[in-house]
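Why do we care about 3D structure at all? Because function follows from shape, and shape follows, mostly, from sequence. That is the central idea of this module. The next example makes it concrete: a single protein chain, its amino acid sequence, and then its structure expressed as tokens.
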Amino acid sequence: MAIRNVTQRTALAAAYASAAPFGALFTADPGTANSATGEVSGGSPAYARKNLGWTAASGGSTTGGATFDVPSGVTVTFAAVAASGTAGTADIRDSGAVPSQQFSSQGQYVISTSYAQS
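And the structure:
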């Protein structure tokens, strides 16, 4: 059943953003087990989780995004939202496939993400 009340949808979207303020990149599907296996690491500047800067929830949705430093030799295939800014911490809250990008040299990967409560 979809939630009909927009105030409730907006509250749930705000809760999602609050529970998962950080973004993370992965070389493989992190799955649904709250695992950080396959999270990108290394590089100069070094890879780090980034604050997604979620917008204020409105109309049952919120958006965020970040730019990540990615080391040479890495292929990014998944992104996730996490509770902690510490890379490698098993606190992944949600994830999904992203356009695959192989880095033959140090580079950057930009993600834009959204959450919409129906």
